[in-house]
Amino acid sequence: MELRFKKLHPAAKVPSYAHASDAGMDLFTVEAFTLKPGEHRIVPTGIAFAVPLGYAALTWDKGSVALKRHIKVMGGVFDADYRGELLIGLTNLGATPQDFAVGDKIAQIIIQPVEHPTLTEVEAFEETARGEGRFGSTGKA
């Protein structure tokens, strides 16, 4: 698969896989900012994608940023027909301000096939062992 991209900002870093086996490409900020506790911010990457038809680009937390800095990616589905900048919603769930410099990793993006199922309304579903069991239904916390 080919994924075409465009740099929209001179400080934009090309999204990249840190390891050959990574599912997601790292995304980087093109501006320095501080994210205060509880604050939400839309962060520019300076990059636009032309996602192929039949695929979508999904943004996710970057493990180290989420676990060590308590930064959560908020939403992020980029459809195949979107051609604008990848803007990433971040929220600081921690108790301390978090500083980001130009070029810092902020999130990761995964390119994934999209299926459009045929929806069929039914009166009931077939029985399963789990049924309608929710959280804790396996007996473990």
Any descriptors?
globular, four-stranded antiparallel β-sheet, 10 strands, Deoxyuridine 5'-Triphosphate Nucleotidohydrolase, Chain A, 141 residues, mainly beta
Give an overview of the whole structure.
With 141 residues, the chain is mainly β. The protein has a single domain (4-113), classed as Deoxyuridine 5'-Triphosphate Nucleotidohydrolase, Chain A (Distorted Sandwich), CATH 2.70.40.10. The chain has 1 helix and 10 strands; from the N terminus they run βββββαβββββ. It has one helix at residues 63-69, and strands at residues 4-7, 25-28, 33-35, 40-50, 55-60, 71-73, 77-78, 85-92, 98-100, 105-113. The strands form 3 sheets. Strands 1-4-8-6 form a 4-stranded antiparallel β-sheet. A 4-stranded antiparallel β-sheet has the order 2-10-5-7, with no helix packed on it. The protein is globular and about 55 Å long.
| Strand elements, count | 10
Per DSSP, the total helix count is 1
What kind of sheet is the major sheet?
A: 4 strands, antiparallel
Computed structural class? mainly beta
What string gives the helices and strands in order? EEEEEHEEEEE
Percentage of residues in helical conformation: under 10%
Strand content: 35-45%
Q: Which architecture per CATH?
A: Distorted Sandwich
The number of domains = 1
CATH superfamily: Deoxyuridine triphosphatase (dUTPase)
Identify low-pLDDT runs: none
Measure the end-to-end span: 41 Å
The whole-number mean of residue pLDDT values reads 94
CATH topology: Deoxyuridine 5'-Triphosphate Nucleotidohydrolase, Chain A
State the CATH class: Mainly Beta
Oligomer: single chain
Q: Which overall shape is indicated by the principal axes computed on the Cα atoms?
A: globular
- Rounded to an integer in angstroms, the radius of gyration calculated over CA atoms is 19 Å
